[in-house]
Amino acid sequence: MKKVFLSIAVLFAAVFTVNAQTADEVIAKYITAIGGADKWSKVQSIKVEGQIEVQGIQIPFTMQAIQMKGARVDAEFQGNKIIDITTPTKGWSQNPFGGKATLSPISDDELKQKLDDLDIQDAFIDYKAKGSTVEFLGKDEEDGNEYFKIKMTSKNGNDKTYFIDTKTYLVYKVESIVKQQGQEVKSAVKYLDYQTIDFGIKMAFKQDQGQMMMVNKKITINPTIDASIFNGN
Fold it and tell me: Residue 118: which residues within 8 A CB-CB, separation 6 or more?
């Protein structure tokens, strides 16, 4: 009987080892495809200028972030300012169209969902050192292409499933569950139009969120950013 249990234990250990190795192999090729860990380690700040396209309307936005210190998005539509700020300990938002006429603190749940975005050097790079875990979920097909599926759970407890193209090894889609107005909602974002920018790193210039498309027009790596813009003032 002991031998039977031992055999079962060895079998499961082998399965999990294969999954871990497969996930890490895919992740290694993905990191190479986006420029490599050495180049991404040089990214300490970023500024993205672009537009949000929804129902034929174009809304300009600017995103600024400093690695693990703060991130801020500013947009304006019909004279109304939309602001979103995230820091390691606090967050604020202002969206008159969502019932927030002034800049107000966000809830702990909202902050938890946004904390992973403070890592602008890509979640997969040194993911173990960052406290994240991954799980290989096999393959899937969509839009005539085949994708590896890898689930990542960050140290903040956020789960995301990444669809990585089996040919290009670039992320095609990310699925996650987010809380909106107290309810859990499935979110899916497709990453399109990858371009090589400063330092030789590669980033998607379009994010298709279904009814809304975010289009990056200009991405600047390591701009000088005044950290006071993350103070929530």
Answer: 65, 67, 68, 69, 70, 71, 86, 87, 88
Judge whether 146 and 58 are in contact, CB under 8 Å: no
- What range does the domain containing 72 cover? 2-230
CATH number of the domain that residue 94 is part of: 2.50.20
CA nearest to 26, candidates 174, 165, 172:
165
Cα dihedral 47→53→186→86 (10° resolution): 30
Q: What is the pLDDT of residues 115-173, one digit of tens each?
A: 999 999 999 999 999 999 999 999 999 988 999 999 999 999 999 999 999 999 999 99
| pTM assigned to the model | 0.87
Whole-number average pLDDT of the chain: 90
Q: Read off the amino acid at residue 219.
A: I
The total domain count for the chain is: 1
Nearest of 232, 233, 224 to residue 65 by alpha carbon: 224
Strand partners, 131: none
Q: What is the pLDDT of residue 9?
A: 45
Question: Strand ranges (DSSP E) for 55-158?
Answer: 57-66, 70-77, 80-86, 91-95, 100-105, 133-142, 145-153
